Automatic annotation (TrEMBL), chain A:
Membrane spanning residue stretches: 33-53, 60-80, 86-107, 143-171, 191-211
Primary location recorded for the protein, binned into one broad class: membrane
Subcellular location: Cell membrane; Membrane
Signal sequence, start to end: none
Species classification: Bacteria, Bacillati, Actinomycetota, Actinomycetes, Kitasatosporales
Keyword Transport listed: yes
Membrane topology: Multi-pass membrane protein
A Pfam family matched in the record: BPD_transp_1
Protein's name in the database: ABC transporter permease
Keyword Metal-binding belongs to the record: no
Keywords recorded for this protein, A-Z: Membrane, Transmembrane, Transmembrane helix, Transport
Originating species: Streptantibioticus silvisoli
Family label: Belongs to the binding-protein-dependent transport system permease family.
ABC transmembrane type-1 domain residues: 29-208
From TrEMBL, chain B:
Protein localization: Cell membrane; Membrane
Protein name: ABC transporter permease
Membrane topology: Multi-pass membrane protein
The keyword Lyase is assigned to this record: no
Lineage of the species this protein comes from: Bacteria, Bacillati, Actinomycetota, Actinomycetes, Kitasatosporales
Native organism: Streptantibioticus silvisoli
């Protein structure tokens, strides 16, 4: 088709757009990726202690889960707007909002994953003389990993998609291009940025799935005898579906 | 930080509620869009999910739709619809986007709810000679009710959120107050609009929690069973997370 004319014709798919604005696309994608990675990373760092506290003191569990659910209910545009007077027009508005959203999913899945570790396995660890910290890191966390990773995948995919709303304060990664394209009715820009966004989400999901497979080699061992020995592990593994 | 008291003054002054683009009109638009779109999406998604759940078919579809709903940015869909031929038709791009994003939670929750009904109960009902329709109406639906309502609740909150975003490409609703605030560089309007949106979302969430409790066809029996389960909590240390381990 008309190679050069697609910009003038405002076609949806336009090679000339991609080649002439490659740098814009790369910059927006890089911003999108760092906002997502920073937000999810901070989310994990904050969610872990919260989940451990919620698990240790049952009285705290209700308020912690309730509060994160309330945060999750607030629509994204409102969340970013409410953070605006705190941080001004900066990337901190977007990152803070995204961290708050990821908390809900992460805390819930970490708590559920840890709760699902079978009591007999924990007892065995205690019987072997494991202290609480060692039990947490060497027994409970590995067994809870499938559920935790499922939460991490959901949180990451949602964060990739929500980052676009950051365009309202100018830090939306690919969302900025969609926002610009919306004002100038530039179809190729909107479609290309949206497509890259979906590709990013799918790629992040697959990447985390790969990491999960690497970290939990036992979940792939489905042999008969082994399965019986590892029954407790296999039972936790099914938590992945429920997540 | 002075934006918050200013936002309060703005929210409580009568002048900002009146007029063609005042809070009153925007709130009306938002509620109207929410109710209409939630009704449309329930009418589309629930029958499909209930029948698929009853037949035990299309589980992959339910899961994939909910994953896709998460991966595709709402904002992108709104703008793509605006630039498409439907974009010229007033509210249509907004309505379509709202319905599209309300369907995944409805479909997934209703499907899972129907599938999670105890197989033994279904066997007994069949053994009593119930037809498929009777089984669905008198056994599966009442048992799946809490999850179906959870889906409706998530969908309602999702619709409120999406309707807010619809203001970015020029749709109506409360989000318009936020975008107008940004355009005029009045932080207190942005914050005031955001407070209204957040309040509305929380109100709707709360409303559906209450509605779910009051309309659950098995509410009395569930309360009894829950009481009994609490008594045996010691025997079953995994408590509410038992589902995770056994299923």
């Amino acid at each position: 088709m008309a190679g050069r004319n697609c910009l003038e014709a405002n076609d949806w798919i336009c090679g000339a757009y991609v080649s002439s604005r490659a740098q814009d696309l790369v910059d927006a994608t890089v911003q999108h990726v760092w906002i997502t990675v920073v937000s999810v990373a901070i989310g994990v760092v904050v969610a872990f202690p919260l989940a451990l506290v919620a698990r240790r003191w049952k009285a705290v569990a209700g308020p912690v889960l309730g509060f994160t659910t309330i945060l999750y209910t607030v629509p994204s545009l409102a969340m970013f707007s409410l953070l605006l007077p705190v941080f001004g027009l900066s990337a901190a508005v977007v990152v803070t909002g995204l961290v708050l959203y990821s908390l809900t999913i992460l805390v819930r899945n970490i708590v559920a994953g840890l709760e699902a570790v079978p009591e007999d396995v924990k007892e065995a660890a205690r019987g072997m003389g494991f202290g609480q910290t060692r039990q947490l890191f060497q027994v409970e966390l590995p067994l809870a990993l499938p559920a935790i990773m499922a939460g991490l995948r959901i949180a990451t995919v949602s964060t990739v998609s929500l980052t676009t709303i950051g365009a309202i304060v100018g830090y939306g990664g690919l969302g900025n291009l969609i926002y610009e394209g919306m004002s100038s009715l530039f179809k190729a820009q909107v479609l290309t940025a949206s497509a890259i966004c979906v590709v990013l989400a799918v790629a992040a999901d697959l990447l985390l799935l790969g990491v999960q497979r690497l970290l939990t080699p036992w979940t792939r061992a489905r042999g008969g005898a082994r399965r019986r020995v590892r029954r407790s592990v296999a039972r936790v593994e099914t938590g992945e579906v429920a997540a | 930080m002075e934006a918050i008291p200013q936002a309060w003054t703005w929210l409580t002054s009568g002048a900002s509620w009146s007029g063609g683009d005042g809070i009153g009109v925007r709130l009306g638009e938002h509620l109207y869009l929410t109710v209409v779109c939630l009704a449309i999406s329930c009418a589309l998604a629930l029958p499909v999910a209930l029948v698929l759940g009853h037949l035990g078919r299309g589980g992959a579809l339910a899961v994939n739709i909910s994953n896709a709903g998460r991966a595709v940015p709402t904002f992108a869909v709104l703008v793509l619809l605006l630039l498409s031929p439907i974009g010229q038709d007033g509210q249509w791009p907004t309505v379509i986007a709202l319905v599209l994003f309300a369907i995944p939670p409805l479909l997934t929750n209703a499907y899972v709810g129907m599938r999670e009904v105890d197989r033994d109960v279904i066997e007994s009902a069949r053994g009593m000679g119930m037809t498929g329709w009777q089984l669905m109406r008198r056994v599966e639906l009442p048992l799946a009710f809490p999850l179906i309502m959870t889906g409706v609740r998530s969908a309602a909150v999702q619709v409120v959120a999406t309707a807010t975003l619809a203001a970015l490409p020029g749709g109506g609703g409360l989000g318009r107050l936020i975008t107008a605030g940004f355009a005029r560089q009045r932080t207190y309007e942005v914050v005031g609009g955001a407070l209204l949106v957040a309040g509305l979302a929380l109100l709707i969430e709360g409303l559906f929690v209450v509605l779910q409790r009051c309309t659950d066809p098995l509410r009395h029996r569930r309360a009894v069973r829950r009481g009994r389960r609490d008594d045996s909590a010691d025997a079953n240390p995994s408590g509410p997370f038992k589902r995770w381990v056994t299923e």
